[in-house]
C-alpha cells in the first residue's frame, strides 16, 4: 500500500499508531490490494510508512510514554554486540582498565549526545529522521546519508545475528550450529519489526527485565576475575593515540542511532519539550552503553589470567560470554541464552528504521509497504550472517567503524543549517516532499564530501592509515578531522548557494 498524502486529508480527532494511513478507494480491488488491506488491519499493526504524522494524529503526553521510550533505548542497547565493543579496548588497543573505562564513558556520552540532538526533530516535525534531513541537506543530497544509514543498520544487525548464533552454539557445546542460532534470532526480529512501533515497544519493555537481570548475574560471577589494575601498554605517545582511537570507537556506536533517532518520536505531541526528548534519549543510551562497555572491558582484562576465558575467546566472542557464566553450570547456560536473545532487542529498531529509509529513497520505493521492506531486510541480514559467519564479523567490524564517520559529519551540517541559516525562520513541516521549498542542497553535499575527505585523511583502520592519523601518532582522528572539514566548508558554500539560488 502506498503512503497517501495526509496534508490533503481532513484531520481526525484521534488516530491510533497502529491504524493504516489510508486504504485504496477504487471500487474494485485486486487480490494483492485485498491481502494488503487485511494485513494492515491486523491488531497492533503499524501500516504508516514515512508519511508525516499530523499534530491531530499524535498521542497525548504521558509519563508512561516517556518511560517507555527511555526503556526502549536502554533495552535495545544492553546487548552483547555492544558489549563486544568494550572488549576491543584491552585486546586491540592494549589499554588498561582505567583508560578503557574513561574512554568508554566519555565516548559513550559524546555519541549519545549526537543521537539525542537528532531525536528532538521527531515531535516538532512528525517526520522520520531521513525525511527531516531533507530540510537541512536538500531533497536529493539527503538520499546519500539515507542510503548509508541503510548499509550501517544492516551491517550492525548482521553482526548481532552472528554473535547471537555464536552464543547459542557455545551454550550447546557446539552441537547446535551457529546457523540455527542465526535463523532463530532473525525470525523473532522479523515478526516484531513487521508489526511496527506498538509491538516492538512492548517487546523492548518486557525483554528488558530478563536482560538486565542476567547482566547483573554475569557481573556477579565474572566480576571477581576482572583485573582493574592492568596498565596500558606502550610509550606515552602510543597510549595517547590508542586512547583517542578507542574513545572514537566508543563514540561511533551510540552515534550510529542518530540517523534513526527521530523515527521513534513522531507520535509525540508537536509542542513536546525538546529538552525532555533530548534527556530521555541521552539517559537511555548513555546508561546502557556505559554498562555494557564496562562489562566488556572487564571480561577482556580477565582473559590474561583466566585460561578458560582465553580459550573461549580464541573460539569466538560468543564463547567468551558463555565462559563468563561458567561457574553457574546449567543456570549459567540459561543466562547465556537470555544474553544471546538481547541482540533481538537491538536489531528490531534498526530493521524498522532501515525499512523506512528505503521508502525515503524515492517515489517508487515509497509505494512498497514498510512491512515488505522489513521482510526483505531481515532476509538480507540473515543471508549475510549465514554466508559470512566465519569471516564477515571481522570485515564488518572494520567497515562499520569507517561508516561511523559520516553520521557526525551529517550532524555538523544539520547544526550549522539550523543555527546559522534557519535561526528565526522556522520550518514548514507540511512541505516534506516539496522540492521547491526544501534547500537545493549542493552546499550540504559538497560539505559532506569534504568531510569524508577529512575522514579519509584522518582514519586509522586495519587496511588503511591516513596521513593525518600518522601525524597524530597512529590514532584514529577521522571523525574529528571530517567534522572540522565540514564545519569550515559548509557556511561559505551555503551562503553562496543562497545568494545564487535563493533557497
Automatic annotation (TrEMBL):
Residues 9-21 have a biased composition (Low complexity). Residues 1-27 are annotated as: Disordered. Its main location: membrane. It is found in: Membrane. Pfam families: Transp_cyt_pur. It is a multi-pass membrane protein. Keywords: Membrane, Phosphoprotein, Transmembrane, Transmembrane helix, Transport. It comes from the Eukaryota. One of its GO terms (biological process) is nucleobase transport. Gene3D superfamilies: Hydantoin permease (1.10.4160.10). One of its GO terms (molecular function) is transmembrane transporter activity. One of its GO terms (cellular component) is fungal-type vacuole membrane. The chain crosses the membrane at residues 80-98, 104-124, 144-164, 176-200, 207-226, 246-266, 278-300, 320-348, 368-387, 393-415, 436-457, 477-496. The keyword Transmembrane helix applies. Belongs to the purine-cytosine permease (2.A.39) family. PANTHER family: PURINE-CYTOSINE PERMEASE FCY2-RELATED, PURINE-CYTOSINE TRANSPORTER (EUROFUNG). This is Permease for cytosine/purines, uracil, thiamine, allantoin-domain-containing protein. It comes from Podospora appendiculata.
Amino acid at each position: 500500500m502506498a503512503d497517501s498524502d495526509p496534508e490533503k486529508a481532513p484531520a481526525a480527532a484521534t488516530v491510533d499508531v497502529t491504524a493504516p494511513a489510508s486504504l485504496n478507494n477504487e471500487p474494485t480491488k485486486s487480490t494483492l490490494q485485498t491481502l494488503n488491506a487485511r494485513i494492515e488491519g491486523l491488531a497492533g499493526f503499524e501500516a504508516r510508512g514515512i508519511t508525516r504524522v499530523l499534530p491531530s494524529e499524535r498521542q497525548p503526553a504521558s509519563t508512561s510514554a516517556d518511560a517507555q521510550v527511555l526503556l526502549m533505548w536502554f533495552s535495545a542497547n544492553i546487548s552483547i554486540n555492544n558489549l563486544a565493543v568494550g572488549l576491543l579496548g584491552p585486546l586491540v588497543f592494549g589499554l588498561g582498565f582505567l583508560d578503557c573505562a574513561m574512554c568508554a564513558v566519555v565516548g559513550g556520552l559524546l555519541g549519545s549526545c549526537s543521537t539525542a540532538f537528532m531525536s528532538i526533530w521527531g515531535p516538532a516535525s512528525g517526520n522520520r529522521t531521513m525525511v527531516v534531513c531533507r530540510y537541512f541537506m536538500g531533497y536529493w543530497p539527503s538520499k546519500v546519508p539515507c542510503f548509508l544509514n541503510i548499509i550501517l543498520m544492516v551491517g550492525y544487525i548482521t553482526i548481532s545475528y552472528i554473535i547471537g548464533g555464536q552464543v547459542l552454539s557455545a551454550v550447546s557445546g557446539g552441537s547446535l550450529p551457529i546457523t540455527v542460532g542465526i535463523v532463530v534470532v532473525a525470525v523473532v526480529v522479523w515478526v516484531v519489526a513487521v508489526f511496527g512501533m506498538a509491538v516492538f515497544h512492548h517487546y523492548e519493555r518486557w525483554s528488558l527485565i530478563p536482560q538486565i537481570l542476567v547482566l547483573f548475574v554475569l557481573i556477579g560471577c565474572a566480576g571477581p576475575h576482572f583485573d582493574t589494575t592492568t596498565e596500558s601498554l606502550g610509550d606515552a605517545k602510543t597510549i595517547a593515540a590508542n586512547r583517542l582511537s578507542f574513545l572514537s570507537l566508543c563514540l561511533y556506536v551510540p552515534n550510529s542511532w542518530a540517523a534513526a533517532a527521530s523515527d521513534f518520536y513522531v507520535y509525540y505531541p508537536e509542542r513536546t519539550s525538546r529538552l525532555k526528548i533530548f534527556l530521555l534519549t541521552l539517559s537511555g543510551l548513555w546508561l546502557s552503553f556505559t554498562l555494557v562497555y564496562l562489562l566488556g572491558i572487564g571480561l577482556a582484562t580477565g582473559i590474561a589470567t583466566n585460561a578458560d576465558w582465553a580459550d573461549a575467546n580464541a573460539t569466538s566472542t560468543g564463547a567468551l560470554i558463555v565462559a563468563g557464566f561458567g561457574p553457574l553450570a546449567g543456570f549459567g547456560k540459561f543466562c547465556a541464552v537470555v544474553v544471546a536473545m538481547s541482540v533481538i532487542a537491538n536489531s528490531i529498531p534498526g530493521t524498522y528504521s532501515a525499512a523506512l529509509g528505503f521508502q525515503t529513497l524515492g517515489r517508487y520505493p515509497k509505494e512498497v509497504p514498510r512491512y515488505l521492506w522489513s521482510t526483505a531486510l531481515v532476509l538480507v541480514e540473515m543471508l549475510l550472517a549465514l554466508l559470512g559467519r566465519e569471516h564477515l564479523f571481522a570485515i564488518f567490524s572494520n567497515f562499520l567503524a569507517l561508516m561511523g564517520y559520516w553520521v557526525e559529519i551529517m550532524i555538523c551540517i544539520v547544526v550549522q543549517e539550523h543555527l546559522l541559516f534557519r535561526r528565526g525562520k522556522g520550518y514548514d513541516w507540511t512541505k516534506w516532499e516539496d522540492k521547491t521549498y526544501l534547500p537545493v542542497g549542493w552546499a550540504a553535499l559538497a560539505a559532506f564530501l569534504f568531510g569524508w575527505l577529512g575522514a579519509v585523511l584522518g582514519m586509522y583502520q586495519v587496511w588503511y592509515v591516513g596521513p593525518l592519523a600518522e601525524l597524530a601518532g597512529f590514532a584514529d582522528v577521522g571523525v574529528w578531522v571530517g567534522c572540522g572539514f565540514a564545519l569550515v566548508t559548509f557556511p561559505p558554500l551555503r551562503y553562496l548557494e543562497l545568494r545564487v539560488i535563493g533557497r
